[in-house]
Amino acid sequence: MPIRRTLVQKLAAIGAGMFLLAGIANADMPSMERTFKKKDYVFGSVKITQSFDSRKDPMSPEFKLKMWEKGRLLLSLNDMIFDDIYPSPDREMFVGLSNSGWPGSAVIVFDRRGRVWFTANHGMSEFDYCAETSTMLKEWYDGKDPGVQFQERMLAADDILGISLRTCKGERVNLWGVVARATEKARTQRRAAGWGDRADNRKDD
Hints:
This protein has helices at 2-17, 175-192, 198-201; strands at residues 24-25, 29-30, 36-43, 46-53, 62-69, 72-78, 84-87, 93-97, 105-111, 116-121, 131-132, 138-139, 164-166, 172-174. The chain is α+β, with helices and mostly antiparallel strands. The chain has a four-stranded antiparallel β-sheet, with no helix packed on it. The chain has a four-stranded antiparallel β-sheet with strand order 7-8-9-10, with no helix packed on it. The protein has a two-stranded antiparallel sheet with strand order 1-2.
């Protein structure tokens, strides 16, 4: 069927684009191949490494993101990986984006000092997906041409509002705004399902 064929094609494209993943098995499941893959990004004195390691246990692989500045390790994160990393023109800020539900990382914004400004995961944030499967595919931004743009100066947390990108529907949106809406949408869905939030369930002493 055309719908099924389109979904398989999208899954194949996502798998091909995610250099760290061993591939896709059974359409919506990661491969059980034991492998190690790594990609380095170098932006002046900043080096960012993403790695995927399933050699010990393909069922529970290790995902890592690390950043060095002039050889000094400033950031090390587990269970996070992104389709690509986008630097600001002055190489002070970096954005990671992912259309994959495995391991679940959707977006991260961090700076060259190793400070993480914000992150969002699929599941905890419900984006306006153009295509979605239960595991691998969570297509919310234009993976071929995201067009990430930064404002000229980013000196305070509010300056995150100056980052924009292109969604999978071709719309240019503010990154912080789309993440905030996706997070609130997921929170509303959890409450409607009776799951609630920790904050919702917190009782006064």
